[in-house]
Model the fold of this input.
Amino acid sequence: MATTCIIVPCYNEATRLPVQEFIQYQQTQPSISFCFVDDGSQDNTLTVLQQLCQQNPAQNEVISLPTNQGKAGAVRAGMLAMTNRSFAYLGYFDADLATPLTAITDLQAHLDRHPQRELVMGSRIKFLGTDIQRNAFRHYVGRIIATVISSILRVGVYDSQCGAKLFRQGVVSALFHEPFISPWLFDVEILARLVQHHGRATLEQYVAEQPLNQWIEQSDSRISPTYAFRMWIELYRIHRTYRQS
Done:
């Protein structure tokens, strides 16, 4: 019986989805299921996902969105669709597997060890013994953004934007019930909603960051260069919406 379901948002992934990695992983991890969400792709992504599901329907499911919703909308659709199942944990990973699937076990083990925790977030912290490969420019821009995000949340989070997160099933409905302001910065909103729910002073009892052993940046980003300008507007809107938290 599957205990964990990972949502994988997919947009125009027909030629880059690592299908064999998912299949090989599932052969050794029967307790892990996947829900692939086709986010209104314009290529053959849906066909690729349907073929993957046919190979192992016990562990794979496909949701097709008629129009592109952005990563936030795709993840939200998948998470809400899985809340009525018997999974103990629900999470999401990026389709390019910059975070390897083996990290699921580490995130799950963290929640197993800490029953009060509701969310564990993968964190791309480079130190001896880890394999964290990031473009230097993106890394330093990311650190600036992370500082802004920490200021907005007034919480010392190092890496809110890593696309590897695992939630205890019971908290998912509350965190994903309302649509998100930003299609890409929704991770910040998730933390802001947890602050609203638990209070800032006790947040660390319910949320933790788990350093990843490996994260390898993929060159084909789904984020357009022009988004860099909209991002700051969205951060302001998030700040304005959640500032009373």
